[in-house]
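@channel sequence for tomorrow's demo:
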Amino acid sequence: MERDPNAKLLRIFIGESDKVGHQPLYEVLVLEARKAGIAGATVLRGTMGFGANSRIHTAKLFEISSDLPVVVEIVDSEENIRD
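structure tokens (generated this afternoon):
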């Protein structure tokens, strides 16, 4: 996909420990987007955040976080994203 001023961004917020079977959900999402011919996908790992339960997840130096926030961003035309 060339630069398209009408391109859309789909942003998906998940936890690092979310899985499909034994595979991380973020990997499944990116691989499926690639299979579908989506223009681009990126996974961003957060250093701090909270979700619906308001529990803080953080990656501080001396702490071990079990479920850091992850954002999967997918970019393409609106039609391709909806498909």
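heads up for whoever presents: The mean pLDDT is 88.
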